[in-house]
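Structure tokens please, single chain.
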Amino acid sequence: MKKDKKKENYLDKIPYIPEDRKWELKGGIVYVTQVNKGFYNSIAQKLFKTPKTSQIKLEGLGSFIWQQIDGNRSIYDIGMLVADKYGEKANPLYERLSQYIKTLDNLGFIQFK
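Here you go.
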């Protein structure tokens, strides 16, 4: 007999920033440190003197979202905070927020509980 698996709602996921992820807040803007590692980055660092780390600047809305990721709030909860602060400017809210969170996840900037 098959058990019915409850479909997981993406908005119920709880993102968190790993402890080893370095970032800083300057003037309300978040800068995330990205270590440039791997074969091609090593070659570029040697040949073209590219930096071993990069500072990724998150724009205003992205910086606000980043600061709401605390390991306790779900994506839905973060969306409610975004709606309170940005109102109509954030629409379509959950489509944009979901894509942004997926991008942060794909870059390895966040993880989920």
